[in-house]
Predict the 3D structure of the following.
Amino acid sequence: FYRLVEFYPNQPRFSGEVVSALWGRKLDMLVAGLLGVAGVGLALSTRRAYIANRNLSHGWLLGIVSIFAAEGARISRVFAAIGLVHSMYEALQFVERVAKSLLTTWGTMILEVRRQ
């Protein structure tokens, strides 16, 4: 993945002295795990957008293809971040649904889950 996005965290030229000194196998495993979550989140987000707009024009797909054509594989960084944010949002929604269900089951009346 690092070669694909042209980022080499163990080289000070790309990531700075502090990061390159601290970078090791554990951080590589963390990045690999986050990329897995980000990939699933991006796939779910793309699927949701496709289903929501299946009867309309699919110009947004052409936009994604043109971004990859213009920027190359380095744009994968942005899509990985989008996928990670979407995964966190879905996890938050799931936890809210489960919390509301559990509290309702155990006799507490809830009108709506509120975030502060």
User: Anything to note?
Assistant: The longest helix spans residues 76-105. Residues 14 and 71 are 18 Å apart (CA to CA).
